[in-house]
Amino acid sequence: MIRKTFMLLTGLGMAMPTFGHYIPGDGPVELSASVVATWRSDDIVEQNDYWQIPGTLMGGHAWPYEKGVAVDEALLGLGARINERTFAVIEVGTHGGGDGHGDSAEVQHAYLGFQCCEEPGPWVLEVGRMSSAFSPSLAAHAGDRLTSESPLVNDVFFGRDFHDEGVRLWWHETAGWSAGAEYWRGKAFPANTDGDGAWDVFARHAWSAGRIRTTAGGWYYRANASARADHRYGGGHTHTPVAPPGATAEAFPDTRFTGDVDVYGVHASLQYELSTDWSLGLQVEWMELAMDGTLNDAVGRQARLDADQQGGWLQPSVSWRRHTLGLRGEMLTTDNHLTGSAAPVLAEDSGLANASGHDPMRYTAVWRYQWRPDVAFRAEVIQDEALADDELRFALGVVWQGQLWPQSRTRGHQH
Fold first, then answer.
1. At the top level of its lineage, which domain of life is listed (predicted)?
2. Per-residue pLDDT averaged across 391-410, rounded?
């Protein structure tokens, strides 16, 4: 029985997508928490440098991972049924960030939900501050992933963590199907609050038969931005590094983007149970982004931007009892066109310049051990080729995820 329980936990967490929000169960208030801590052998960039992947416009919460021990995530969540059809979720937490950024607690989820129309539904309406539902990897917490680091494509296209204020209406897991639409205020990268907001549509299907479980889905996201800055280092959070003696540091060139951003993606997962002890897993996601707009800076220089970028990741894994071994391969490609007299300068300042044609890649080998139902350990070897200079680093981490109340019940329905 214990062995089957661990196999279920491993299979659910490692082979199939999980989501950063859920519908509470029918019982009493549910209180859950998680802490993810990781030691890394090296920094992605030096302390007085900026993390800017060549050929991309970055922002949001995509801070570089740092050397030493860091709390990647700490969360406390409360979910409750108000009545038979209405529920509420509140989640407070931190996401670790470079140089201490992201360490302060913030409300990540605070939304109300309403279920109705069981035939042909159910339909679910949710309103408030939420994660997205369109991409499994974007909605997953750091403890839900097999690896400790967010996919590169999420860092570049969505600033790693997507939390925004909006409304979601969707057809919820009926005969394996889920489909819906979301409208966002535009606080989350790649939108901004000065633009016209953002919206998306999505659909996915889950299927199982015997030893096989699969999911597949697709989505489309559109955002508008007005004078959007990279708030990691620029905009209202100007970052001026101080270099040690003998080294140099440059002020961050604050360029802005105004225009439309379109992103679409597909994702799939597969789990195959070879036996009671062994199972195989596969996850894949691919995204394509198009930007059409204008770059400008504080001195009035402007350039027209037309960009097409693609990226994704593939992750096969094998699980034996409490152990999971996995490999994740990632890549990004960029095709950027800037026109205007200021195009060369703005391309360099913004990070869109990629004269060498470098295609960012990253490869991760990971072992995860589910020591207890709520505690897991993981070890990783990461070959990082996101920047022009390759880097090999190592990581050791611990994941604790538990339901604090009630302890005798299964947590509400993940979605």
1. Bacteria
2. 88
Short-list 80, 81, 77, 51, CA closest to 64: 51
3-class SS at 311? strand
Q: Is 44 left (phi over 0), alpha (psi -120 to 50) or beta?
A: alpha
Identify residue 18 by its one-letter amino acid code.
Answer: T
- Cα separation, 315 vs 136, in Å, equals 14
* Residue 120 preceded by cis peptide, ω within 30: yes
| 3-state SS class at 247 | coil
The tens digit of pLDDT for each residue in 154-193 reads: 999 999 989 999 999 999 888 899 999 999 999 999 999 8
Domain count, the chain: 1
Q: 195 CB contacts (<8 Å, ≥6 apart)?
A: 186, 223, 224, 225, 226, 228
Biggest CA–CA distance in the chain, Å, is 70
Residue 90 buriedness (CB in 10 A; 0-12 / 13-18 / 19+): middle
| Cα separation, 303 vs 118, whole angstroms | 52
Task: Give me the CATH number covering residue 246.
Answer: 2.40.160.10
Quick one: residue 117, left, alpha or beta (phi over 0 = left, psi -120 to 50 = alpha)? Answer: left
Look at residue 121 in the predicted model and tell me its pLDDT.
74
The dihedral sign for the CA sequence 266, 107, 98, 252 = positive
Evaluate the omega torsion of the peptide bond into residue 151 and state whether it is cis, within 30 degrees of 0.
no
**SS3 state of residue 7:** helix
Q: How many CB atoms lie within 10 A of CB 367?
A: 14
